[in-house]
TrEMBL record:
GO CC annotations, alphabetized: membrane
Encoding gene, per UniProt annotation: LOC111356469
Protein name as it appears in the record: Cytochrome b5-like isoform X3
InterPro entries recorded: Cyt_B5-like_heme/steroid-bd, Cyt_B5-like_heme/steroid_sf, Cyt_B5_heme-BS, Cytochrome_b5
A single GO molecular function term of this UniProt record: metal ion binding
Similarity section: Belongs to the cytochrome b5 family.
Chief localisation class: membrane
Length: 155
């Protein structure tokens, strides 16, 4: 079954014992493919635990090679875990695979991939119970003030 995975989980699988890689936001476990790769084991081991999108596409893999990916797919990166967290490399403006990155500011093309400004987290919506708490507190204060005023005016 396909899982939603984080960049940190992928990065941990970076040795011959277990090789995961990301290609276009999909995560592949290619451990069993190390010895079968027609391009040799080196390119696979070099991409272990990393985003191999550019490496994979730059080689000009055949349609057959692309179809093989299905067999090794184990999951998809969670939203926000792709571009900025996986790709430490420099963006290539000529690469079509980074053009649709929604996590980086497009103007950063050609510069190291870094997260763009994040929207400020919205405060948690006030729950009904906490509104009641304030109302009861205000009522208590009003009653106390009332008593204090009465005592003060009655001498
Ligand atoms: C799961 C991932 C991968 C699969 C399924 C895969 C599959 C294949 C296949 C089937 C070929 C034979 C040629 C072809 O049909 O295109 C091949 C060749 C090759 N692959 Fe991969 N590959 C993968 C990942 C990578 C990565 C990450 C690199 C990194 C650079 C790489 C580099 C190469 C190279 C250099 C060749 C030899 C190309 C040639 O002799 O012309 N592969 N691969």
């Amino acid at each position: 079954m396909s899982k939603i995975l984080t960049a940190d989980e992928v990065k941990r699988h970076n040795t011959r014992k277990s090789v995961w890689m990301v290609i276009r936001n999909e995560v592949y476990d290619v451990t069993a493919f190390i010895d079968e790769h027609p391009g040799g084991e080196d390119p696979i081991l070099e991409a272990a635990g990393q985003d191999a999108t550019i490496a994979f596409e730059d080689v000009g893999h055949s349609e057959d090679a692309k179809a093989m990916l299905k067999k090794y797919k184990i999951g998809t990166l969670a939203p926000g875990e792709g571009c900025c967290k996986m790709r430490a490399q420099i963006w290539r403006s000529s690469s079509p695979y980074h053009r649709d990155c929604t996590e980086c500011n497009a103007s950063r093309r050609g510069k190291p991939c870094r997260p763009g400004p994040q929207p400020a987290p919205s405060p948690p919506a006030e729950s009904g119970t906490s509104r009641w708490k304030y109302a009861v507190l205000a009522l208590g204060v009003a009653i106390l003030l009332g008593f204090a005023y009465k005592k003060y005016t009655s001498g």
